[in-house]
Amino acid sequence: MGIWILNARVVSAGNETQAKHVLVEGGLVARIADADGTSPDIGGHEVIDAKGKLLTPGLIDMHVHLREPGFEHKETIATGTRSAARGGFTTIACMPNTRPVIDTVETVKYVLDKAETEGVVRVLPYGCITKNELGRELTDFEALKEAGVIGYTDDGVGVQSAQMMKDAMAKAASIGMPVIAHCEDNTLVEGAAFSEGSFARKHGLKGIPNESEAIHVGRDILLAEATGVHYHVCHVSTEQSVRLIRQAKQIGIKVTAEVCPHHLLLSDEDIPGLDANWKMNPPLRTPRDVQACIEGLMDGTIDIIVTDHAPHSEEEKARGVQLAPFGIVGFETAFPLLYTKFVETGAWSLEFLIDKMTKLPAEVFGLPWGTITEGKPADLTLIDLESEKAVDPAEFASKGRNTPFTGWVLKGWPTLTMVEGKVVWSV
Ligand SMILES: NC(=O)N[C@@H](CC(=O)O)C(=O)O
Ligand SMILES: [Zn+2]
Ligand SMILES: [Zn+2]
């Protein structure tokens, strides 16, 4: 028995949508029919009446932290995947900065097993570039690939040695795998919590300069050119990084990039005070950087949107801005934030936003999801574009409540998430 999703609206082009009935059967999209006021033959199938809500391909998030194993007080695969489902995500790629880090076949297997038994959405793990993310010795790339990782990254820290990064890229290129980089030169950061800008100046704090990110982006672009690897830049946040990536793409270097909602919506000038819910890495930069990230996304320099969902406990975030860990949660606010602030305002089309969170991440990483196509897996999300609701962290399925968006009144809330034909969450 399958499920008919009746009277959904599917984006056709720009802001245009078409009314469709979609039959899901055997985990696949079996039929997409025009909903011209008529009802299809339901047969013995179940029915979900979408009542005109938007039906999108399940959202894909290529940069998330599920914290398991080792930091289960922050998040688990069970809670993190439920949070993802509430945010409309059906496929998520988890970062390896767990404890132990994901640098062995055993840990990859552990994560995949947990995801299978306790998770509700598809989880794709990354493996570390270096053992323990210490930057000293490469992991066994072939073995990790064999175990099921989709790429290599030391997210959480930058790979400080250029030679180590070059070796990693050469190795990854030789087996057709991408290198995903958290770009940060430690010598330029040294303990700062916020970016170099008006907020840090006002509070007499040492700032994180833009170059700490962009120096790695520039270095790695040259190394990607030399090695031919697919190089993907994590959480781009500076004007300089956008410029370097734009130039690299122009001359045909295989570089792709991602940006987070918070770097598109907030600058350091918005930080209300010394509150660790506004502390994340990379930090909120200047309004000029925010503008550059938006332009980079719009002209295709930045390929995709990711959340960098980074839950931490309330106790950890209450340690004061200097000691609190970097990171904010992202799953359950991403789509409503971007829909309300960019699509409703007319800056972007609905198609543009959805592509950046579905089709394009799939294309960048060569994944088979991200579209609504007959015969393809039924990863689908229903979204209510009408109802307004304020962000309330108490409602999150995530263990993390660490968000700077509390109280923001938004539209575009997901109401149902389906993975391979199975409803994994609905309101
Ligand atoms: N983004 C963050 O502020 N924090 C991430 C690490 C990372 O993505 O670099 C985390 O693991 O908490
Ligand atoms: Zn990072
Ligand atoms: Zn991250």
UniProtKB/TrEMBL annotation:
InterPro entries according to UniProt: DHOase, DHOase/Allantoinase_Hydrolase, DHOase_cat, Dihydroorotase_CS, Metal-dep_hydrolase_composite, Metal_Hydrolase
Keywords assigned: Hydrolase, Metal-binding, Pyrimidine biosynthesis, Zinc
Pathway involvement of the protein, from the record: Pyrimidine metabolism; UMP biosynthesis via de novo pathway; (S)-dihydroorotate from bicarbonate: step 3/3
Cofactor: Zn(2+)
Binding site for Zn(2+) 1: H63, H65, D155, D308
Catalytic-site annotation from UniProt: D308
Enzyme class: hydrolase
GO molecular function, one term: dihydroorotase activity
EC number: 3.5.2.3
Name the UniProt record assigns to this protein: Dihydroorotase
Catalytic activity, as annotated: (S)-dihydroorotate + H2O = N-carbamoyl-L-aspartate + H(+)
